[in-house]
Every structure is written in structure tokens, then in C-alpha cells.
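A.,

Following up on our hallway conversation. C-alpha cells first:
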């Protein structure tokens, strides 16, 4: 059982001992720390916090604990109930709120839950603010309100519909052309809140929907991470239904993947590539993804005469680099689309609407669209080291061995070769180096990973 505290929130498994897992006591403690920080930041007499959750079995319990902790601090809570991460992010500025909390452990299995913390823009907290909250929790520095100054909870369960309406307003979302295409789509929402949001969006776009695992009961029918090996039921049903494509999202709907009409994966890395291709074709501009994302985005951006930049891994880092470079679209290779015209957060609903508009305009099958993009293949590995080894020194040694190549050290060490790359990152919690490689074939990517592991062992003397 695990409890992980980070600048972006607190994540852990339900049950067990206080301080070692995400127990009710820990939920109250960290919600109170966030609320205490927010009261110092806000100039309002009663700050406002938007709270929503995915459909995890523990979600209602954790949400009640979190909301009533905020009420005890004199904070007004807007309860979205079952919601999505991007929906909460959209709601914060629309409600003129001071912050938001999303109760979700994203793609983690059902025994996990988490408090994801937002600022008054509906964006994830930066490192400085996150550290302040952790410090408050560490010192138990809370002052709760007296009885006449308690906050209150106000329910608003209409925000998924509001979110969908905001997506439909976007100039690059063409509802008419999508409707004319008469798409038939199978949706796997892993029995979480995507089962509410994604079919509703598709029907609003005039799409025929076949629902698979769309009951938001929190009983995930398979591993909720949207990877090929977990999506066999979706692939089979797409073929069986003679559908145009399959759509899958993770439990909080910020990661998006597609299945082609033949049942094959479109490729999670290519969700962002396809959406960026469409946006860039309409309006030239810049793009951003993190260092561990496919080179295909860079290629597509160059094709449209834009500038591509890479950020450190983590959504908050992608957003910061997007703002710095005035990027018109960005995200992460895990299927996360960030489209600033709506908000600075990964949003599967925006991604679906942009992708379907692109597909309808191209008048292609999904497999044909995929074939228009450069093909890259990834390998993801790790090397376990003994605690006495200096990971930073090993990474520096790897950097030195490749000093004549194009090297980026903003987040670990990334070495770009002519037709491939390798990215090394150290774990913050254990002596592990994570190894990501990409090349023009799976065999080449795997070989590059093997060579990298051998080089690291040589540097470490093991």
C-alpha cells in the first residue's frame, strides 16, 4: 500500500494505516492544507473551490471528506459530482473560483485515488505553490472557522454539458461536416465518467455511438491505462460493428486513444500528432510536447512551417513551455491534448472533436489517415541500480559519452541521433533510471535500449 505526496497533489491506495495510504485522515489533512493555502492566496472573504470526481468506488467517500474539510475552513464549495479532469479545469474560471480539486488517480487501478490540485486559472499548481501546501500539511498548520463562518456546498451537475457546449463553440470544430460524415464510433470509457461525457459529446456532433463499458460505476473491466494490450474488447467490437473507429479514454478523461476501423491501434502517441496536423493546417503556429513524446509531432510541425519545442515531462511543464512559445496546440504522447483556445489542460473532449473534424475533412478511413504520418516505434525500459550508486553521476557520464550529439538536459538526459533518440530520467523515489527510446522500427528502438542499458552498466561499473 502506498501514499505519494508531490507538488501536484496526493495519491495513494485506499485503506490501511494513516500516513502510509490514502486514508480518510490523510484526505482531510491534505484538503485542509490546500484550503489553508488558498485562503492566504485569495483576497475573498469566502474563497470558492470547484470539486469533481471520477467514478472510482472510493470517490464519493473521499469527495465528502474533502468538501466538508473545505467547508470547515469557511470555503464555498461547488460540487460537480461525477465529472472529468478537463471539466473541472473548465469550470474553475467560468465560476470565478479560486481553485479546484479533482478526485481521481487517472489511469491507476481501482484501489487508488488522489487529490489533484488546481489554481484559479483551472491549471495544475506550480512547484512553488505545491511545496507550500506540502509544508502546511507537514506542520499541521490549519485554523478552522467558527460556526457562524463555515462555508457551504452548492451542487452543480450540469458542467459536463457546459464543457461540451464550450467545445462545440470552438471555430475549428465543425459539427456540420462531422454530422455529414455519418460516423459510427465504439466508446470504451472503462466504466468511469468518460461514459457520461464522451457519448454525450459524440451524439451532440451527430455521431452514432456504440457504448462499451460506459456505466460509471468504478468497476474497471480491464486495466484502465489506454494501451493496446488492455483494449482487445474494444478492437474486436469496432470490427464486429463495422464502425469507423473506436475511442477510449482513461478514468478521468484526460488521455485519449483511437482504434482504427480494422481494429488496430491508431497509436496513443499519434493522437496529438493528428490533432496538431489539423490545427496547424488551419492556422500556422508552434507546438510543444514533452521530451519523452514521439518525434512525429516535430516532423508534422516542421511540415507546416511551425516551430516545435520540447518541455520537461509533466503537464505543468508542457503548459509553461506552451505559454513561453505561444504554442497553438501541445500535449503529451500519452494521448493528452492541450488546446489553449479552450483551456491549458489535457482534454479528451477537445481532442475527439478536433480529430473527427480532421477525419471528416480528409474523407479517409482512420487507418489511411494514420498512414499519412511518419512512423516511429518506441521502447520503454528501466534499469535498477543499487542504492549506493550515484544516479546523477551515471547520467552525467552518459551525457559526456554523447557530447558530440544533440543533447537536452532539462529533464534527465535526452540524446537525439539522426533517425532515433534516447531519453533517460531518474526516479525520484527509488534507484531506477527510466529509459525511453524511439526509432524507425521496433527492432531498432529495442536495440538502442539494449545498447543504452549496456552503456549505463559500463559507466556504473556493474
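Then the amino acids I'd put at each of the 462 positions:
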Amino acid at each position: 500500500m502506498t501514499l505519494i505526496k508531490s507538488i501536484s497533489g496526493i495519491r495513494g491506495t485506499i485503506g490501511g494505516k494513516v500516513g502510509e495510504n490514502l486514508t480518510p485522515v490523510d484526505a482531510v489533512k491534505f484538503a485542509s492544507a490546500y484550503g489553508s493555502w488558498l485562503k492566504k492566496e485569495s483576497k475573498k472573504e469566502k474563497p470558492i473551490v470547484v470539486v469533481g470526481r471520477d467514478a472510482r468506488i472510493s470517490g464519493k467517500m473521499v469527495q465528502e471528506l474533502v468538501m466538508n474539510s473545505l467547508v470547515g475552513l469557511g470555503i464555498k464549495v461547488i460540487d460537480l459530482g461525477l465529472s472529468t479532469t478537463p471539466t473541472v479545469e473548465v469550470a474553475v474560471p467560468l465560476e470565478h473560483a479560486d481553485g479546484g480539486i479533482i478526485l481521481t488517480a487517472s489511469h491507476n487501478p481501482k484501489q487508488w485515488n488522489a487529490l489533484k490540485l488546481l489554481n484559479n486559472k483551472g491549471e495544475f499548481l506550480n512547484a512553488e505553490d505545491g511545496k507550500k501546501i506540502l509544508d502546511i500539511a507537514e506542520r499541521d498548520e490549519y485554523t478552522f472557522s467558527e460556526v457562524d463562518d463555515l462555508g457551504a456546498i452548492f451542487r452543480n451537475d450540469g458542467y459536463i454539458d457546459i464543457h461540451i457546449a464550450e467545445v462545440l463553440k470552438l471555430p475549428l470544430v465543425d459539427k456540420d461536416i462531422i454530422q455529414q460524415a455519418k460516423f459510427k464510433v465504439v466508446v470504451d470509457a472503462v466504466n468511469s465518467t468518460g461514459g457520461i461525457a464522451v457519448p454525450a459529446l459524440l451524439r451532440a456532433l451527430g455521431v452514432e455511438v456504440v457504448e462499451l463499458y460506459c456505466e460509471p460505476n468504478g468497476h474497471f473491466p480491464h486495466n484502465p491505462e489506454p494501451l493496446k494490450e488492455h483494449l482487445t474488447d474494444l478492437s474486436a467490437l469496432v470490427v464486429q460493428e463495422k464502425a469507423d473507429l473506436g475511442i477510449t479514454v482513461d478514468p478521468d478523461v484526460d488521455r485519449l486513444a483511437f482504434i482504427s476501423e480494422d481494429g488496430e491501434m491508431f497509436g496513443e502517441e499519434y493522437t496529438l500528432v493528428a490533432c496538431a496536423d489539423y490545427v496547424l493546417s488551419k492556422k500556422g503556429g508552434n507546438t510543444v510536447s514533452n521530451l519523452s513524446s514521439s518525434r512525429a509531432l516535430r516532423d508534422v510541425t516542421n511540415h507546416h512551417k511551425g516551430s516545435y519545442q520540447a518541455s520537461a515531462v509533466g503537464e505543468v511543464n508542457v503548459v509553461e513551455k506552451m505559454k513561453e512559445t505561444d504554442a497553438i496546440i501541445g500535449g503529451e504522447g500519452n494521448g493528452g491534448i492541450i488546446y489553449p483556445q479552450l483551456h491549458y489542460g489535457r482534454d479528451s473532449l477537445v481532442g475527439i472533436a478536433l480529430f473527427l473534424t480532421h477525419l471528416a475533412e480528409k474523407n479517409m478511413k482512420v487507418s489511411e489517415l494514420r498512414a499519412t504520418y511518419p512512423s516511429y516505434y518506441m521502447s520503454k525500459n528501466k534499469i535498477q541500480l543499487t542504492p549506493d550508486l550515484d544516479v546523477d553521476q551515471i547520467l552525467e557520464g552518459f551525457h559526456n559519452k554523447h557530447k558530440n550529439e544533440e543533447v537536452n538536459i532539462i529533464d534527465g538526459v535526452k540524446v537525439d541521433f539522426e533517425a532515433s533518440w534516447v531519453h533517460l530520467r531518474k526516479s525520484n523515489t527509488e534507484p531506477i533510471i527510466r529509459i525511453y527510446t524511439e526509432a524507425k522500427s521496433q527492432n531498432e528502438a529495442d536495440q538502442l535500449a539494449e545498447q543504452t542499458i549496456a552503456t549505463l552498466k559500463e559507466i556504473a561499473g556493474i
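The radius of gyration is 22 Å. Curious whether your intuition agrees with the design.

B.
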